Amino acid sequence: MYSKLSITHVNPSKAALFPLFPHRDFCKVGSSAKPKLRFRLVVQSLGDKWRLRDIDTNAVQEQLNMWLVKTQSFLNEVTSPLVRTGHGSKHDPVNVFDTQDIDDIFMAEKTIQSSTPSGDLSLAAIVSIEQFSRMNGLTGEKMQKIFRALVPEIVYNDARNLVEYCCFRFLSRDSSDIHPCLKEPAFQRLIFITMLAWENPYHEADDSNANSLGKASYQRKLVGEEAFVRITPAVSGVADRLTAHNLFKALAGDERGISLSLWCTYVNELLKVHEGRKSYEIQESPQISRERIICIGTSRKRPVIKWENNVAWPGKLILTNKALYFQAVGLVGQQDTRRLDLTRRGSQVQKTKVGPFGSLLFDSAVSVSSGPGSETWALEFVDLGGEMRRDVWYAFINEVIALYKFVNEYGPEDGDQSVFHVYGAHKGKERAITGAMNSIARLQALQFIRKLLDDPTKLVQFSYLQNAPYGDIVLQTLAVNYWGGQLVTKFNEAGYLLDRGSRSSDGVFESNNHVFDIDGSVYLRKWMRSSSWISSSSIAFWKNASVKQGVVLSKNLVVADTTLVERAAVTCKQKYQLVEKTQATIDAAMLKGIPSNIDLFKELILPLTAAAKNFEKLRRWEEPHLTISFLAFAYTLIGRWRCEKPIA
User: Fold this and answer.
1) How would you class 388 by CB atoms within 10 Å of its CB: exposed for 0-12, middle for 13-18, buried for 19 or more?
2) CB 401: neighbour CB atoms within 10 A?
């Protein structure tokens, strides 16, 4: 009997760079501790060509196993983080790259044309483009051709834009609160590589081999602020456009950038925060079942204390998206839960001091009220290590209060039926709440890994914009982003005429028209109740609110250009930095320059001051003999001057 041993081979030009992840099931794949090498040999009868007994099955088995072991080792490395977080930092020999094997696999599956008019693509750029292309269901070469057909030549020649296009196109599919693929270590590393690719899209001359994956040690690479601010806000839940630069400063600290290990630690801690919130919803009482729990403050070592009539009540504090709940613990058990509404106009939170008998000894508390005439809570956050716990909780509570100030000022009124004329506008308030909750989640993650700024309110978007210059314009763009959408019906009611041309005949923006986002979403002028819409800064901003040459994937993702929120955030950041620099100069002058100058001035005028005091004594005849002597001396000088004067 004659047979043929049929083995299926993979076409290198069409194989995936990371074959373990087809684009549909990327987020569902995990790595196995003991990989099983499974393959099937298909035997077919083909007449008198081959004899089965003539085949050295052991040799074939050995060669196949060697190839599969090499491939499986590479895939296991892709699905595991390069740096493991935790207490230990031991080297794991199982996850070490086999340089030559990976180089062979990588070179066999690169489809993109790495040579560009501006230079050769860097290794990180090739990896990012190839991987995201396959997650989009295409090859790197195909994505490169599509992008070239979409944009002008000047945009295409910048490889950074191609990296953005491949990455943003995949990320634009997701609209969840936090991207589900972040749970995969391989995806975390891919985002890090993409930031490196955006920062350095071209091959540097000092690299000996641009196409050798073994030459790239991502453990030693650092991501800079510009790349971090551009890429991370595109990943749902990781950062926002407004505070991304402050998030980078908090993570980087005194370092020049963010490492892979720090990046993975932050993302994993952020995921834990979101998982913790899900457990809160199950455990807590049905009294708050209609609200979304943000965080819970309770600890035996670091309790939350509510001061009332000079009596300290320890207990459990719960912050939701609408209110504060406090359940005191008494001598006979827990007392009834009390609620403080944070959605009312006039709600405020302030830092304060507390202590027994009104002594104000402890500077670790906040006072919270729902407005004039409401009850005021004094909450102390015991923290023996400093005041940061109080400052963080202040930022939490202030963010919720600032959220509803934004909703009341920039959102449609409750019961406004016009929200149903714009697609998705009825969900605008929920989008704003989600944005605030994600900001607080990021601040919680930074608190857990001990990476905080001196002022935590700079890390939560609505609190940050309260006192930021140009903040009202940024809030306008957020309002358009949250409530804007496509019209689902045509209507001609008074004040609702749709005027797509938001400019008058002379090209000047008119504040009494609707405003449009970059994707054509409309924000009705009926909703523009804030006085900031008629300011000169607002008119100037919306006059130029258009994308010139980029590719709009969604209102939140634009390739080779910026979204409206990002554009306003950049201006706000620049103005904020200018204000901080000016304030720092003034503070330095007040603390160093002016006091020393005053001391010098006092030293210079000291003799004049002493002379003035002595002259006052003479004038008051406090010491008569000195006054008489002074007058005699003065008259003598006057008499001599008159005698020496020539007579005309």
Assistant:
1) middle
2) 21
Burial of 466 (0-12, 13-18, 19+ CB in 10 A): middle
Count of other CB atoms within 10 angstroms of residue 32: 9
294 burial type by CB count under 10 A (0-12 exposed, 13-18 middle, 19+ buried): buried
The answer to whether 525 and 513 are in contact (CB under 8 A) is: yes
Which tokens sit at 129? 């483009």
Of 24, 18, 173, nearest to 102 (Cα)? 18
520: left (phi over 0), alpha (psi -120 to 50) or beta: left
Those residues whose C-beta lies under 8 Å from the C-beta of residue 438, and which sit 6 or more positions away, are 177, 178, 237, 240
Does pTM top 0.90 for this prediction? no
Task: Please determine, for residue 552, whether its predicted confidence score (pLDDT) is greater than 70.
Answer: yes
- For residue 558, give the nearest of 519, 525, 592, 589 by alpha carbon: 519
Looking at residue 509, its amino acid is: F
SS3 of 179-202 = CHHHHCHHHHHHHHHHHHHHHCCE
pLDDT, tens digit (0-9, with 9 covering 90-100), for 173-217:
998 999 999 999 999 999 999 999 999 999 876 554 444 444 456
Residues with Cβ < 8 Å from 146, sequence gap 6 or more?
138
DSSP 139: -
- What is the token pair recorded at 504? 């008058």
Q: What's the angle, vertex CA 483, arms to CA 442 and CA 569, rounded to 5?
A: 50
* CB burial string 508-524: b at 16+ within 10 A, e below: ebeeebbbbbbbebbbb
Please check whether residue 618 is in contact with residue 630, taking contact to mean a CB–CB distance below 8 angstroms.
yes
Helix, strand or coil, per DSSP, at residue 370: coil
> What is the distance, to the nearest Å, from the Cα of residue 568 to the centroid of all Cα atoms in its chain?
15
In this prediction, residue 323 carries a pLDDT of 95
Distance between CA atoms of residues 233 and 445, nearest Å: 16
What's the CA gap between 310 and 306, in Å, rounded? 10
Residue 633: predicted pLDDT: 81
Give yes or no for a contact between 234 and 171, defined as CB atoms under 8 angstroms apart.
Answer: yes
Q: d(Cα 184, Cα 30) in Å, to the nearest integer?
A: 8
Whether residue 516 contacts residue 522, with contact meaning beta carbons closer than 8 Å, is answered with: yes
* pLDDT per position as a tens digit, 488-531: 866 544 445 444 444 444 433 445 589 999 999 999 999 999 99
Q: Is the pLDDT score of 277 beyond 70?
A: yes
- Scanning 86-184, the segments in alpha helix (DSSP H) are 99-108, 123-135, 140-150, 153-156, 159-171
Q: How far does Cα 631 stand from its chain's mean position?
A: 79
Q: Rounded to an integer, what distance in angstroms lies between the CA atom of residue 137 and that of residue 232? A: 23
C-alpha distances (whole Å) from 313 to each of 16, 332, 376 are: 61, 13, 15
Helix axes 123-135, 140-150, angle to 10 degrees: 90
| Closest of 18, 146, 138 to residue 559, by C-alpha | 146
| CA terminus-to-terminus distance, the chain | 154
Token representation of residue 268: 């994993």
Local structure of residue 293 (DSSP, 8 states): E
Give dist(CA 76, CA 90) in Å, integer: 18
Distance between CA atoms of residues 483 and 477, nearest Å: 10
Which among 244, 240, 215 has a CA at the least distance from the CA of 229? 244
